[in-house]
Amino acid sequence: TLLSVVNDVLDFSRLEAGGLALDPAPFDPAAMASSCAGLVAERAEAKGLEIHVRAARGVKPMNLDGPRLSQVLLNFLSNAVKFTAHG
């Protein structure tokens, strides 16, 4: 959406200016990957694409800025769906 694009540009500007604060906290990367995949699944299915998430067993929470990492992965997946040809 347009709001997401604007927020991404603002975040990038903050990052370049050194004003983007990261907030590391215990975070489950496997759950985040599944959540992000779920958010783009409908658009992927409409193009005949499938998204599969496989996480190693026993992955422990990590100290990460979860929302920022989710934002990166969601952008990556959204672009993958957008720029991948049908089926």
Overall mean pLDDT = 86
Oligomer: single chain
Number of strands: 2
Instruction: Spell the H/E element sequence.
Output: HEHEH
**How much strand?**
5-15%
Shape: flat
In total, how many domains does the architecture comprise?
1
Which blocks of ≥5 consecutive residues have pLDDT under 50?
A: none
Main pleated sheet: 2 strands, antiparallel
User: What is the share of helical residues?
Assistant: 55-70%
Q: Roughly how many Å apart are the termini?
A: 23 Å
Rg is 15 Å
Strand order of the largest sheet: 1-2
Q: Specify the structural class.
A: mainly alpha
Helical segment count? 3
Description of the structure:
With 87 residues, the protein is mainly α. It has one domain. Strands 1-2 form a two-stranded antiparallel ribbon.
SSE topology sketch:
Blueprint: H1 2-17, E1 25-27, H2 29-46, E2 62-64, H3 66-83
Antiparallel strand pairs: 1-2
Helix pairs in contact: 2-3
GO molecular function, one term: protein histidine kinase activity
Organism: Klebsiella pneumoniae
Keywords: Kinase, Transferase
